[in-house]
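Exercise 7. Predict the joint structure of the components listed below.
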Amino acid sequence: MVLEKIRELIADKIDCEPGTITEETKFSDLGIDSLDVTELVMSIEDEFNIELEIDASMVAVSDLIKAVESKIK
Amino acid sequence: MSFSIIGTGMYVPPKIVTNDDLSALVDTSDEWIRQRVGVERRHICTDETATDLACKAALNALENSGCAPEELDVIIAATVSGDMVSPSVSCMVQRRIGADCFAFDINAACSAFIFMLDTAAGFFERGRVKKALIIGTEQMSKIVDWKDRGTCVIFGDGAGAVVLEAGEGYIDSVLTTKGGDEVIKIPHFIGKSPYSTQKPQEPYIFMEGQETFKYAVNAMCSDIRKLLSDNNLTADDIAMIVPHQANKRIIDLAAARLKIPAEKFYVNIQDYGNTSSASIPIALDELSRAGGLKRGDLIILTAFGGGLSNASCIIKWQ
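Solution:
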């Protein structure tokens, strides 16, 4: 569910097919920089009504999923 | 009783440093800087200090207002990159422009201009002053690490000033602080006491980029929503929003999240970089002199930065 939502948000931002995005996808491969990642995190925070900490260690979709799942448990 | 803005002024040092110039200094590129921050060029001090910039901006604003220095009842200045801790910038400006009123500085980093306006509003409300000079001045080039490509490309030097007189132009404000140094920090030189056990820190600006971005966007959105709602206004009632020029992407994302058209946000970061406390008064001066504002226009000023503090206000242009 979280992966689905992240795919949707990324695809919306960079105009790509959601299906091409997997857990292993790195943000740099998508051509999105750390400020784009921050924007993505902010959208996810709104969507799930949580607050996340962002830092440079968030490099792949899996990092984001892990962070979200730890907050919504 | 609050105040009206009767004059604006600015001054930037003549030396312009382009993105290409910076690419020769650090591992960066014009394309990266434009895309990441929105800056194309910035003005950088050679032999001038924050006090020099402040004096020139102040005289510029006084001339614009038709007010003589002797008429001023207070001078308030702000800087995070001053030449001296004491005397404050405002004291030196007072001396150099030939004013004789009391003068003091405040420290609220990038939000200082609005904190100064709010402070001045209190003086006007009490009838303590009839004319005030407010200055934001920065020599950011002094406090950036010129080896750090993440920060040295963002900032620029400059000063902006406004002259205020008693009036009814200050409509409402919101000031917020979330104290902490994890996101934005500018340490002082720690000195050379033989007894100190403190760890030396580099006296340069440190910013955690992503957290700063998130904080700034949320602060701008929250402040603007609150000001509009508290005053029964919509974005349509506002002629222009003048944000602190920290990063164009902050402004763009805030505009998108607020669903306010981008054209309503004044942007000049491409020419000056982030000039901290000077950015809003510089923008205001440019906007005013270009004829972008007419009497009765409602404008929102919105700032955020080190502290962490954010501050925004609604002003009726006079």
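Discussion. The helical segments of chain A are 2-14, 34-48, 61-72.
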